[in-house]
Amino acid sequence: MTAHPKDTAGPWADIEAQIRGPRPMSLHLANSLMIWREAGAGVRRLRAGTGIWHTGVRDSLETLKGLMRSEDDWQRLNKAVERKASGRADAMLRGIAKYIAHPYNRPESDAVEAARIGNCRLYDFGGEGKPILLVPSLINPHYVLDLKPGRSLTTFLKEHGYRPYLVHWYDPGEEELDFSIGDFVMKRLKPFLEHVAGVVGGPVPVLGYCMGGTLTTALAARAGDLVSKLALVAAPWDFDTKKPHAGKKYAPVMAEALAKLPSQMPLPVDAVQTFFTSVDPTLNDRKFRKFATMDPTSEAAEFFVALETWVNTGAPLPRRVAEETMIGWYRDNTTGKGEWHVGGAPVKLSEITCPVWIAAPEEDRLVPQESAYAMLHGLPSATVHDPGAGHIGMMVGSKARKGLWEPLLKWLEGDHAA
After folding, report:
1. Boundaries of domain holding 191
2. How far is Cα 401 from Cα 120, in angstroms, rounded to an integer?
3. Is 228 among the domain residues?
4. pTM
């Protein structure tokens, strides 16, 4: 492990320049066209009484049906619906074109590369504050924790007495391509933690976001002497919740796809993005139609471009990691059952002795609050917090500072009994 000079946007700047637009583009275009081309068919089903309608519109549609007195009425309704549907499809395309053409580029980061192991990097945001290790998911790049000015948890922590160190996984290299999740914990996170702890000569606080939270849970169980406090933000743990994980229904499809891929082939980025699209197949249509109406010079438009580019930037998942998540976590619930192995043994929450803070929003569509709060069965003294926003919004949205950052800081500064 060696230290390196300042690394600005690194290779991600070139990658992001190629990724503008929802990914995979063909899937999102097909979804939108299918939705709006079916609009006329909806009129025909309403007339025939064969449609199955959402409860929120059922009464209104029945009222509308009662107003149809003649064949001409139905023809006019059908043409009006088709015009509206065509306009929405066009608006989505305008939004995508507007997004692709937007001049925003992510500003240069203040971070310095402090350490590198294989293809994984540890960034140091500097300052004289107390070191804290931040761990994102393996799925998307690290900078959701440092998205842009005013939308950066790392900057907030640095301004309030901390020296953030942020893990960036990068594309898996030759060694990482054969990794399990446990290998990322023991062969990458643990040495990075040792580096950060070495700066002060003792244990440091650790924060994990999303999948990064699940990884840091294992890290605290395996290297607890180096972790002073553990903050978990939307970290999935129990995959057999009453409110199912959004991707649980699609996970078997991903498992089947993995079985058909050549041996050792990682799960491609577009396949990972398709999995997340299954959570809400119409989301991109709605997002880009809204973006089409935005002033491109506004902060809101710039934020949209910054976040959307992050969402569509990712790396392929090593084969064993993909199988472990899709089959081990989603299907078999190895984490919730205490059967997830890291470092040669199952991860037991009872092995974590430091204070723990669990932030999980009720409105999170990716990680049900119940899944994250399930850790309370093994960590009954943990502190829980609802940030009052969605999975990504709580980290970078308009409510992030009040909903997540400030409560996190208050907890970090508190005196907690282990």
Report:
1. 112-267+316-413
2. 29
3. yes
4. 0.89
